[in-house]
Amino acid sequence: MNKPATRLSYADRIARVVDHIAANLDATLTTERLAAVAHFSPYHFHRIYLGVTGETAGDTIRRYRLNRAATALTHGDRAIPAIAREAGYGGAAAFTRAFAAVYGATPGAYRRAHRGRDHRTANQQQESAMSHPTEIVTLPARRLFMATHIGHYHEMAAAFDRTAAWLGSRGLLADDRAAIAIYRDLDPSVVPSARRRTDVGFSVAPGVAATDGFKIVDLPGGRHAVMHHKGPYAELEAACSWLFGVWLPASGEETADRPFFDHYLNDCKALPPAEWRTDVCVPLADR
Q1: What is the rounded distance in angstroms from the CA atom of residue 183 to the CA atom of residue 200?
Q2: d(Cα 286, Cα 64) in Å, to the nearest integer?
Q3: 106 SS3 class
Q4: How far apart are CA 178 and CA 182, in angstroms?
Q5: Of 5, 6, 89, 80, which Cα lies nearest the Cα of 40?
Q6: How far apart are CA 92 and CA 102, in angstroms?
């Protein structure tokens, strides 16, 4: 096998591991098991995974589990010890330390902060609009190389990682490397979370074609309402409720007949969740 083919094979095999991790977060994910999924020797799997993804397999597992935990804390009333066990921690103390190190708050404080935010009145939300600065801008059209993710929104990271590995190993990422998630369900509230549909992927050059289960999506440009959000992805749902329930009705604007999308502006692997930046983009009707 020549060197370029070997490089592509390695990336594809690591992508299978990422998918396996996302689909088996509640399983015991040993190095031996993950190496077997990729058909690598366990002795070398750690270094290959790190070289391809930029983080260890353990880092990926912790990131996915803590992201799921943050979502669980902001939705419902499950006990924190139960969420800790689901995240792979034997006790609440270890979970609290790990969660606080990443999210900057203990699980209890994080839950209280978001519960208080969700229960504010519309007027209180409108008064705090500066926490979600929003503007109307003209966005460029983009050609996107995307995978279809079916499942809860907090599980999209695996599809992003798999797509990035495929493109990166082939040198096909566009210069702007825009990471985009397009929400396809007309009413997610009536769709079970396990069946929600999202297209996730990255901008690519015009000559890139659909292949290997990926598809090309030509995202139209034009007028958009763009809400600038800074913070964990688990907070986006509440921010979007403000955007659609407070800002949009007061704006005098009409939405275009196209889905809204998120544009992720920085690398969640390299920064703490408090520094994650996302633009929520809502297409607007032409004037």
Answers
A1: 9
A2: 39
A3: coil
A4: 13
A5: 6
A6: 15
**Residue pLDDT tens, the chain, 287 long:** 444 555 667 788 888 999 899 889 989 899 899 999 988 888 788 888 888 888 888 889 998 999 899 988 888 788 998 899 888 888 888 888 888 888 888 899 888 887 655 444 444 444 444 468 999 999 999 999 999 999 888 888 889 988 988 888 888 877 777 899 999 987 776 778 788 899 999 999 888 888 888 999 999 999 999 999 999 888 888 888 888 878 887 888 888 889 999 999 998 888 888 899 999 999 998 88
**Three-class SS state of 236:** helix
Laid out side by side, the sheet with 179-183 consists of: 134-139, 222-230, 277-283, 261-264, 179-183, 197-203, 142-150, 215-219
Which residues, 6+ apart, have CB-to-CB distance to 126 below 8 Å? 246, 250
Tokens of 267: 């690398």
pTM for this model (two decimals): 0.68
Tokens of 137: 């801008």
